[in-house]
Amino acid sequence: MSEQTLEGRKAIVTGGGAGIGAAASRALAAEGAHVVVADLNAEAAQQVADEVGGEAWVCDLGDTRALEDLRLDADILVNNAGMQQVSPIQEFDPERWRLLHRVMLEAPFLLIRASLPHMYANSFGRIINVSSVHGLVASAYKSAYVSAKHGLEGLSKVTALEGAEHGVTSVCVNPGYAWTELVAKQVPDQARAHNMSEDEVAEKVMLAPHAIKKFVAPEDLGAMIAFLAGPHGGMITGSNFVADGGWTAK
């Protein structure tokens, strides 16, 4: 049996009830971490928590005021929870735009803020921000998502610089399109925005920028996150791990 590199470590994974978050929860638990599966969906969080021998935390990251006084004892924080809205800027509902920013930028800031005192006190911390290829490039009709992910990139770099002397690393993982519930739900909106059928969206919109014409596997991203959280990730900070099928090579 191989050594479990995260034995004795506590990890919090937001959006851990499905998709990339569930894959990350499984991968971290397989390396010995005690995983707190944080999700708005109580049933999904509990199901994954039971599967990995962890615990569920039902958490609404859109309610950022409720996060302001948190103090967390996590050694590993995976900011993964995400939302999407596909809409032209002139038609984008302002409150929906703000909600995406609360969930994907303000909440990660508050969770990092709540985690750093414990990490600093123990001279160890891993902050892994699940960004996106859209943290590096833009696509039309995704103003809230793209701007939130670009902001997360900056937050991750600042965290890396501040945490360096305390043994805390901060990185971004940047997938292209991974076939998850989040991606599946945007197909109808993509079809409307691009004036095409839903069947055409995967080939002509989602996978068009990928050099490798495949969706990213959540399990591959989970394995990447577990590696970055482990002892071999100690010198990896302030950087990006891009799994975009060659999208940004162009």
TrEMBL record:
The keyword Methyltransferase does not apply. PANTHER family: 3-OXOACYL-(ACYL-CARRIER-PROTEIN) REDUCTASE, 3-OXOACYL-[ACYL-CARRIER-PROTEIN] REDUCTASE FABG. The lineage of its organism: Bacteria, Bacillati, Actinomycetota, Actinomycetes, Propionibacteriales. Transmembrane segments: none annotated. Keywords: Oxidoreductase. It comes from Enemella dayhoffiae. This is 3-hydroxybutyrate dehydrogenase. The keyword Oxidoreductase applies. Belongs to the short-chain dehydrogenases/reductases (SDR) family.
